[in-house]
Structure formats: structure tokens, C-alpha cells
Amino acid sequence: MTSASRAQLRSVALHTVLFIVLGFWMIPLVYMVSVGLRTPAQAFDPVLFHWPVTFDNFVTVIRDNPLAGIFLNSLIITVATVVIVVAVAALFAFACSILRLRGSMVLYATLLTTLMVPLASLVLPLAILLKTFGWVNTYWGLIFPYSALGVPFAIVILKAFMDDAPKELFDAARVDGCNSWQTFWHVALPLVRPALVFVAIWQFIVTWNEFFLALIVLTRAEMKTLTIVPMQYSGLYMANPGALFAILTLIALPLILLYVLVQRAFVRGLLAGAVKG
Asked: Which residues contact 122 (CB under 8 A, 6 or more apart)?
């Protein structure tokens, strides 16, 4: 067997294994969509596919809920959080890695400790704080906590990239007369663009899927986000599993579309720091 034949055989074997792994990984997603397309009598049938399908469950959740307004609530909160997290983390990473401002490393070490704090332990203090500020049932009541929770992780990612950036570029920018803001905008941000994309996509996914804080902060029906909607279709006996899985499908659909559109940028940002030198 020639080397070309062996290489082709290895490629076929590798792709076969990957397709098998993909098939197992897709089972929960396919089952979620499948149950959403079943009648209540068929919901618990132990099969992956069921025929014929019905769209009654999707019609029910769209009829029972103002999904356009709920989707807008989720989108506003998520996009605002992503913008704040990326902006604050990029500025902080620049201050630590490039400007090396006094006390920035102490603050960075302090921020790292917040990554070990579980969200459940922050719920009561956050609830009291948000009630004091009058931010219950407002967008800010979720945007600021989500941003505060997302910034430490984003800083870790962006600081690692800026630490590895060629310092000669920043020295050359100063020689050319750039101030700190110009250096940040024209030199630092283009260098860490893959990391910025990764942080933005990651924060979008985390914020869009968050449930616990949204359940506590948003109590009015017109303010709720998409992740709260499935609660009305679940209960002790799961009265309407078809509608529950239908709304879960609608929640997951924007994230799936987003990942399909930006998967190359996401993977590039994830792996950009894997090879040095």
C-alpha cells in the first residue's frame, strides 16, 4: 500500500469516527425538535423520530406568548451585556499588559478570585442591591449583573493575548506620536481581534441562556426573557411536554444560527493562542 493510499485511508477512518461522534452529540438536539413536533399522546414514545409530525405545539407557544417582545427583551439584554463586557475587559487588559498602570495587577488578581464565587451565593445580595437601586423588572437589573459576572473571564482571555503581543509595535506607535487611546484603538484592538470575537460570542451564548437571575429579577410578564417562558409548560406532571420542547427549540434556534454564521471566527479565536513563537 502506498503512502498516499494510507493517508487516504486514515482520512476516511478519521471522518467516519467524527461523523459517529457527531451523530451521538446530535441525539439530544434531534430529540428536542422531535418531541416538539409530536401530539401530547405521542410525546413520551421511546423513539427518536415520530411520523406524522404536527406544528400545533409551535402554534400554541406562539399564540400564548408575545414572543416578539420577549425575544426583543432577550436581545437587548444580551447585546448590551456583550458590548459592556468586551469594552471593559479590553480596556482593563490594555491597562494591565501594555500601560502597566500602578495597582492594575493587584486588581487583576482580585478579579481572578471572583471566578471561584458560585452564582447562587450572590443571588440574595444582588436581589437586595437591585431592589435598593430600583432596578427590579428593568433591563439594567440584568445587564449590570451579567456584565459584572462576565468581565473577569473576558479579562483573563484578552490579557493573555495582549501579554503575547509584540511590544515593539506599541513602542513604535508612541514614537509616531500616538497617545494611549490611539494606541489602544489602532494597535491593540486589531492585534487581539480573534480574542475579541471569541469573548463576544461566548458572552452572547452565556447571557442568552441564563435563567436563574432572570427568574428572580424579572417578575412582570412584559419584561421576561425567553429562558423564563418554558416554566409555564412544565410542572409536577409535565402537562404539556410538546409545547415545552417547542419553546426550547425556539430558544436554541438563534444560538444555532449564530454559531453556524460565526463558527470559523469562534474557533479561530479559541485556537489563536495555542501556537506561540
From this structure: 145
